[in-house]
Amino acid sequence: MNESDLEIAMGMLEDDAKASKARQERRNKAIGRRKELEEEFTNRIIEALESGSPLGKWDIGHTAGDGAGGFPLNFKTGKHYRGINVFFLWFAQMDIGGSSKWGTRKQWFDYLQRLYNSVTKSMPDDMKPDINQFLPEVGEGSPIVFYKPVKGKKKDKKTGKLTDDDAWIPMMRVYEVFNQSQLKLDPVLKAMMGISAPKELPIDEREAQCWQIVNDYVKRTGVTIEHRGASSFNQDTGGKAGKGLVVTPERDHFKTPAIFWGHLFHELVHSTGHALRLNRPKSANLATWSDEDYENDEMWEKLSREESYAREELVAELGAGMLCLMTGWDYDTRHAIYLKSWIKALNDDHSMIIRMATAAQKAIDLILGTEYDNAEDSEEEVKSSD
Fold first, then answer.
1. What is the torsional sign of CA 362, 363, 365, 371?
2. Residue-wise pLDDT tens digits, 117-135
3. Of 110, 153, 300, 359, which has the most beta carbons under 10 Å away?
4. Quick one: pLDDT at residue 246?
5. How far apart are CA 50 and CA 63, in angstroms?
6. Cα angle: 142, vertex 364, 230; to 5 degrees
7. Domain ranges of the chain
8. What's the burial of 173, exposed, middle or buried (CB within 10 Å: 0-12/13-18/19+)?
9. Nearest Cα to 182, choosing from 112, 252, 115, 251?
10. pLDDT of residue 284
């Protein structure tokens, strides 16, 4: 190898080293940001728990996700946010009294620019308003996270070393979104955007939507639902052909429709953990689990039966709350018995709430019959925010 070739080779090695260092710096930054978000959100949840109302009362305005306080959605794509992002944005909506509509700064900029151009196209460019004046500042929004799968290598659980087997590794991306109520709009722009007070959906319409969800879920899964007695529960070994049994008291037993649907949705989320469905260790059959069963499950690894049950109840609470948000019901969590277990678990592991929200989202997808491509949807959101 001559001197020129050697210089080229050394330069390539230096470039590789710089690229590797840059990737590691980006990775460390992402990990740091993730930990910040986990700690921030966990502390918010713990604060609500310690206030005496687990996760707080979710007063959503009865608009079934399309108005103030409803289920958070991206105004451009029309898609609802998912998993932990629902709770990031829901808490933000409560703080600012905002609507359910969110978007990146670029999405709002492009939308307002098109809106203004439609009425100012005959004006000289130097007389057209600067769209930025209508937008909140960077840093005034709320974070959302997406996990984009990237190709990597599997890690050996025992040694911690990478193997030769390929694996898709979720890489977290954090983006900032802004609520519609944060836009600095004059009455003309508000009228052009069609912003007005949300209309409350009648109770019978909300209940019809809920019954449709329940009936479709029953048809797809074979779960048996009965209304009797004075308590609500889920039984994996019950129902037709052992496909699960969900029981709640009769509808008239409850003081309000919201309480009834909160109970029923809670038990439906439990039922998704059946071995024939998501196979989530938990719920009605904990007494039949052996120590070996617990040791072999990653999500509930090294937990006592009581701790595992408390985590399953948290999944059910999150899932029921999300379903109530989606269908227009207030939701007041009701499992204060698990309060200490939840607070301890959240303090011990700030990433736990992310995993529980993910488990709750999987349950909701099953209940709604939703097929979701996380990579595809995340990519769409990413491109919209560039």
1. positive
2. 776 666 666 767 788 898 9
3. 359
4. 93
5. 29
6. 115
7. 28-385
8. middle
9. 112
10. 40
